[in-house]
Every structure is written in C-alpha cells, then in structure tokens.
Design a protein that fits this description.
This protein is an alpha+beta fold. It contains ten helices and eleven strands.
C-alpha cells in the first residue's frame, strides 16, 4: 500500500539524518502512531514512526529497544537511527532499521523461543525499569520494588483497575474478587524470581521472521518474572508450538506456571478493556472468578 508522507515529516527526516526520502509505503498494524517504510536514492531503507499526540510514547519505545539491543541476545531488534521530539512534548518521530520480513518456519519459531530465553538471561537487582513506559498508549509504571508480588500488584494490576474505574468500564461485581486476588498475591506469585529483562508486550504482532533472524520490537521493557512474556505469548495465540519448545530447550519452567499465567494475563486483559472497551470484560471476569471470596 502506498501512502503520502506529510511534508513536515519528510522535512524532519531530512533534518535528522541528512537524507531526502524518495518513497514511502504505509505499514499497518498499530493504532498509536503512523508508520511506514522510507526509501531513499541510496540504500538502506528505514522504518519510521511518528505521532502528534505525545513525544513520551516513542521516547519510551526508543529506550526499550536500546535495552533489548544491549542485552546481546540472538534476537534481532531494530536499531534506532534517530529520535526527534519537539520541545512542547507533542510531536515525535522515531527512525529505525528496516527489517525485511520472511515467511515464518518451524526453525524460526524455535530460534525465537531460544532467543527469548537468552534475553531473559539478562538480570537486574530488583523489579522495574529506569523509567516509566507504555503498554499500548497507556502509561506503565516501573518504580523499583524488591518483591515481585508487590511490583505486580502496585505497578501493574492496581493502576489498570483504577483506570478502568475512571473510564466507567469496571464492573462492581469484580471488586471483591480483585481484592481477594491482591490479598493473596504473595502466596500466588513467587516472592523473588530472578529479575529478568522482559519484552513486556510479547504478542504475535510484536515478533517477526526476518532475513536476519527472529526479530522482536514495540517493547514495554522492564525487569520482571520471565513468565510474563510466555503468558502473553499464549493470550491471543499466533505462536507455534516450536516457540515454547525452543524456549524450554534453554529454560525449565517452574511448577505452577499454568495458574500464574492467568494472573499475569489479567494485566493485559484489563489493559485491553481500557483500550478497546467492554468486549474484553468477559475475559477479565473469567480470570477473576477464580478469586471469589
């Protein structure tokens, strides 16, 4: 699909990297920013994203990509080329490497799983990240915590619940079940798993087979329990069985993962409720029913 690159964006690209775009093709898939492939008189092509809503979103994406690149795993991560943000904190533009997609094969899925396991081998001293970022277009808090259940309750579940209440999307019948979950969260989640570097938003649209190998992008990066990435990979499907097999070639999952993944995915279900409305209410309720007082 061909598109028209706004002149203001073309000018900012030219000012940032000293190259004049000669072609632009829309790349669909996100609802937060505009994006597409830029071509030039001389290679290489670049991927561009821009938004007029908030410079913070793409700044956070840039920082997350750099953290994943710094991990040095076998996963391909598009390297940022330039980040442009205006002084008013509204417009922002992120240029990064263009990754050429290829068909996903069994070997791709296996390599993606093994690469994720290698990424998870990068650890920190506690749970959180050096800055807040975003899960979709919603702010994601990353204040450091020493106990994993505290982090997941305070930085993940509670902010989404409060936002759902503010948005008029929270069903009052859920409250006692949610409170019961938080009351017992220290029993339900491990207190001190290794704080691993996680992608944070690992659905199938944020991973891709490329000519350079398995790639991941659009992260919501932080240091947390490795199971959050595996849980989300199962939430909406799209990952072949070879992905899990490849991961478990490297990492053995602790007992109880099938129960914990429901709690981890509750965060994403409430987040989707806040993004897209009541269509996700049944998913939220399905998980919370487990915690009826």
């Amino acid at each position: 699909m061909r598109g028209s690159l706004p002149e203001t964006v073309s000018r900012r690209v030219r000012d940032a990297i000293g190259r004049e775009p000669t072609g632009f093709s829309v790349v669909s898939g996100g609802d937060i920013s505009h994006s597409g492939r830029l071509s030039f008189a001389e290679p290489p092509d670049l991927f561009v994203k821009w938004t007029e809503d908030s410079s913070a979103v793409l700044t956070a994406e840039h920082d997350g990509l750099m953290a994943l690149i710094g991990a040095g795993s076998s996963l391909v991560v598009p390297r940022p080329v330039s980040l442009v943000a205006d002084s008013k904190g509204r417009f922002s533009l992120l240029l990064m490497e263009w990754l050429e997609p290829t068909p996903a094969t069994t070997s791709y899925w296996t390599a993606l799983g093994r690469g994720l396991a290698a990424l998870h081998g990068v650890s920190g001293s506690s749970y959180g990240f050096e800055s807040d970022n975003f899960i979709g277009r919603i702010a994601q808090r990353n204040e450091w915590r020493d106990k994993w259940p505290d982090f997941f309750a305070e930085m993940r579940l509670e902010p989404q619940r409060r936002l759902a209440i503010d948005n008029g999307l929270w069903h009052s019948v859920w409250t006692p079940m949610f409170d019961q979950l938080l009351k017992h969260i220290e029993e339900l989640l491990p207190a001190d798993p290794v704080p691993a570097l996680v992608h944070g938003d690992l659905w199938s649209g944020n991973a891709m087979s490329t000519t350079r190998g398995p790639a991941v992008f659009d992260p919501a990066t932080y240091y947390g329990h490795v199971e959050v990435d595996l849980a989300m990979s199962e939430l909406f499907g799209g990952f072949a069985a070879a992905f899990r097999s490849g991961y478990q070639d490297v990492v053995t999952l602790d007992p109880g993962y099938p129960e914990r993944k429901e709690i981890y995915n509750l965060y994403h279900l409430i987040n989707h409720l806040n993004h897209f409305g009541d269509a996700y209410a049944s998913g939220v309720q399905r998980v919370l029913r487990r915690f009826r007082p």
